[in-house]
Each structure stands twice: as C-alpha cells, then as structure tokens.
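Much of our argument rests on the idea that a fold can be written as discrete symbols. This step matters because it turns folding into a mapping between discrete strings. The record that follows shows the chain in one-letter code together with its fold in token form.
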Amino acid sequence: MTGEREPIGVIGVGWVGLVTAACFAELGHPVIARDILAEKVEALSRGETTIHEPGLGELLKKNAERLTFTTDMGELLAGARLLFVCVDTPPTASGDADLSRVRAVVEELGSGDHVLVMKSTVPAGTGQSIRRDLPGVPYVSCPEFLKEGSAVEDFLHPDRVVVGADQGDEAAGDAVARLYEPLGGEIVRTDVASAEMIKLASNAFLATKISFVNEIANVCEEVGADVGEVARGMGLDQRIGPAFLRAGIGYGGSCFPKDLKALKQLAGNTGYHFQLLTAVIEVNELQKRRVVNKLQHRLGSLAGKRVALLGLAFKPDTDDMREASSLVLAARLQGEGAQVSAYDPVAAEAAKNLLDGVEFCGSAIDALDGADAVVLVTEWPEFAELDWAAAAARMARPLLIDGRNFLDPNLLRGAGFEYEGIGRAIESTVPAGTAE
C-alpha cells in the first residue's frame, strides 16, 4: 500500500463511482471498476459516457488505457487491494438508508488482503457493523463531497478530504490519505463514525441554509423587500457567507433529500427528535408548491390553461431527475387541470419516464408556443440568452414565474412579460379571477 500508482478498485459506476474512477485514472492510477449492470459496463468499455457530467467524458477518453470496466468481482479483487465502494444507498419507506447494496458488496468481498474504502453515504455506525462482519479487513470511511455539474472539478480540487479510520486501521487510512495528497485539499483524519457524520451534517447544514433563505424570501414578498438584496447583505458577513443563500423553489437531487431523511431517521432511531431537520424538509416541500399558488393568483383557475416548464433536471449541467422540483410542479399543475409542456436541453429523455401526460418539446420557444404562463424551473444558461421578445409573441399570455431568480426582471418586462420571481418585489399583480 505504499506505491504511488497502486491499482485502485471501484465498486459501482454510477455518478460517484464513475467520477471517482476517471479522476483516479487522471492522477495516473490504474483503475478497475466493477458494476453489476452488464449494459453499463459494455457501454463504458466502448468508450461511451453513461451520465452527463461536464468534463467526465474527456477524462474517460484521455485515460482509457488506465481504466478497466468489468462485471466480475473476482477480476476486481485480483487486480486491486484498495476498494472504493460507490454503490447507491437510497432511502427506504421508513426514511432509513437502504444498505442492501453495501451489504451485498460485503458478502461478496469476504476475507482477503484488501482495504474497504466507503464512498457511499451511510449512517453513522455502518462502519462499525461492517468491521464486525469482515474481521481482519481494514475499513476506511472516505465520504464524497462532489456536486453534480462540477464533480470532476470538485474531486481534483477539493476543499477537504475526510479520511476516517479506527484504531488498528491507521495504516489503511494512511494509504487512502496518500492518494489524495497531490490534490492539495486539507485532509481531515478522524474516526469512522465521525467521518460518517461529517457527510450527513454537511449536507444537512447546506439544506438548512437553502430552506432558511426560502423562508426569508416568502416574508420578503409580504413586506415588499427583495430577497436578492437581503441575501447579498447577509452573505457579506463572514460568519454567514454567500453560498447557498439563493432563493428558489427548493433543493432536490440525489444527496440532500436522501441524506436529510437518513439523518433525521438516524436521530429518531436513538430516540432523539431532530426538530430543525423536520422543519427544513417541510419548508422545502412547500416551496415547490408555491409556484402553483402564484400562477393561480395571476390566472385564476388553471383548468384548461397551458403552462410551460423550462428546465426539468434538479439543477443545470446534469440530467439527474431525482427529487427534481419539476416532478412535483408538473404533477400539481396537472392536478389543477392544466396542460403542461416542457423543455430541458439534457434531461428530457430521463424525464419522459417520469412525467406522464407532459408534452416534451425540442426547444424552449416551442414549449412556450400558445402557453398561458411559463415557469423557469432549472437555470440552464441558454435560457438567459433566449429571445424573450420573440417568446412573448408566441405565448397566449406572456406571464413568467422565475423559480430560480435567474433572469433579469427589467429585461423580461421590457420584452413584454409579466414577471414574478421568488422573494422579489412584484411590479404589478393581477388579482385572482381577473385573467382573460
């Protein structure tokens, strides 16, 4: 475990696993990546990228000679000692993390001269349980802190790397830490349980900032303040900082919703009621639905109205639809009797399997054709460059709800739109029931 270019094994080549494999290959390590889905392994072996992540495809092509993809666990175990577990841990019906994929890896691994490095997000206490099941196999917790849309950059330029190893596994922790030393981020050495909690606590705190600023935005609408100015003034305080203080229609994706539920349930399993997290989750769910109220206030009944959604993925630069606000918004609009059209430059194919009855369009302009309103759901850069005057001419009524406060209100109003953001001062309001 002392060689700079020691072979690395990656178990699971979803989003985290594929980025991990590609970036370690970029650092010069031979990587063997294993997944149980043969079609995914075959596609990657042909040089095809299976997820949308900026820069990932280039890394996979550049380092193809260092990357081996397989479905054979035996090939992985024979070729690498450091094994990074990157399998999914989705929430169960109870809110607990589903560790069945992690347990399946443990069962396949058995004993041997390997180091198990847990990248998957797992509840505190998981490492201790695995060490009991795999006596003699060193265990290291090394949670990921990657953001979809900038995962390659985050991996190669981390602000910190957390390495958790308990007594007796210090040498394994040293080996993992050495892998990350060339990247320059601070390496946090701690015990396994603390490493597991650092990941959950970090995501919970960031989600709390988002829900807090969304609550502030809702108050701003009532008192005539501008949440953008409020957030800017808050963020200049070094104790607060500007990150994650952008009001909108709520967080989504694969990490925040899952990790908050897991942490809340983890606390509940110990008998502790995590009241703050309960409120954070509730605020986020309600925020997604406020857009419907805004539309009803402007249009009256939504029955028979055509509403366009611009953007479907939970954030730009990804095709991830997990916990996307568009899912809730589309369902609520359809529940009110509205016809829904939609456009997303990347996530449309993934969304088609999730959104029944939605008309998917080939461009933003086509989605707006004949619409009574448009909601900006995902802040794709191309929407800022749209010819909004031409868009207004295509709509039955040029009403825009900016769910991400992404667009320039003056530009939109100058193009003929009724514009309303989240927590922004409203220039004019059409009372409910007075729509044409």
User: Anything to note?
Assistant: The chain has two domains: 8-190, 226-436. The first helix runs from residue 15 to 26.
